[in-house]
Amino acid sequence: MVRRILRRIVYAVPGTQALWIRINKAAGRSPRVQFSGWGMETETAPPWCDGGGDDLTREFLKINSEVADRVATGDMRLSQFDEVQDKGRRLREFMWRHYVVFWSARYAAKAAASPVTTLVECGVCDGLTSYFAMSAAKGHGRFMAYLYDAWEGMKGECLLDSEKAAAGQYSYLSLENAKRNLRPFENEAVFVKGFIPESFQAGTTPSDIAWLHIDLNSAMPTRAALETLFDRMSTGGVILFDDYGWSGWRETKVAIDAFFAGKRGTLLPMPTGQALFFKHESRGCP
């Protein structure tokens, strides 16, 4: 009883949570962690606890299990996990990230005013995020996904001086592998190979974008993607950033914040390192 009361008091005072955790660890008591992975650890129950509390979450669990099964059988190859022995565990560590992807894409599909929901991803990798996004849109009207990636190593000239060490990374990626992983959506996916922003000149840049995911691991292409695509987004559209809160991509956060200065919308940073931006009406919203 005393411990529960003390815990409530401590967690009500800002800045004392870390001290409380250290006290518990010193006493040999660990908090009941409900989720651990993707840079976060929490005692709170995730949405999928006990099988999920709503239809969206239950659908997410179904797709997450589907992905895990495909990875386990080799039907889906995630090249960034090639050196990971326990791929099932790694996918479980990604669940909060993928839940945000699934939730935001479903939100966009239901809120889209256009008869066709347009999804755009900049930085596709093996297609894992796209798989969750398109699965969320499926069954909620027609949709098309435009998928942009170089599928080769990052170019030094596209990186800031502080990012130069990343030059050449992701050279193992393959467009053919991404297409194979996403073959259940082959009629809804348009693959555009090339570096941003040059790849936007290929004549396939869509309008009325409902959902945009940017995961480019670098500031200049992120800014370039926003400059090209933001005005093409539908009112009420959603932008999901993957790299916003990570210390290794501080320059990306700075670029995003600078771009949105003075623009109408709401930015929601998340403990997963992601951030959501909701585009508002041109008038009448703060």
Question: Can you describe this structure?
Answer:
Helix 8 packs parallel to helix 9 (250-260). Helices cover 36% and strands 18% of the residues. It is built from 9 helices and 9 strands. The protein folds into 2 domains: 2-31, no CATH class; 97-279, Rossmann fold (3-Layer(aba) Sandwich). Helix 8 links the parallel strand 6 and strand 7 (233-241). It has helices at 2-12, 17-26, 55-73, 87-93, 95-111, 128-137, 175-181, 219-229, 250-260, and strands at residues 35-37, 40-42, 116-122, 142-149, 189-193, 209-214, 233-241, 265-269, 275-279. It is of the alpha/beta class and 286 residues long. The strands form 2 sheets. It has a 7-stranded mixed beta sheet with strand order 5-4-3-6-7-9-8, sandwiched between helices. 34% of the residues are buried. Mean pLDDT is 89; it is low at 1-12.
What fraction, in percent, of the residue positions are helical? 25-40%
The CATH topology of the largest domain turns out to be Rossmann fold
Q: What is the CATH architecture term of the largest domain?
A: 3-Layer(aba) Sandwich
Q: How far is the N terminus from the C terminus?
A: 46 Å
The topology string of helices and strands comes to: HHEEHHHEHEHEEHEHEE
Please describe the structure with a list of short key phrases separated by commas or semicolons:
2 domains; disordered N terminus; two-stranded antiparallel sheet; Rossmann fold; alpha/beta; 286 residues; globular
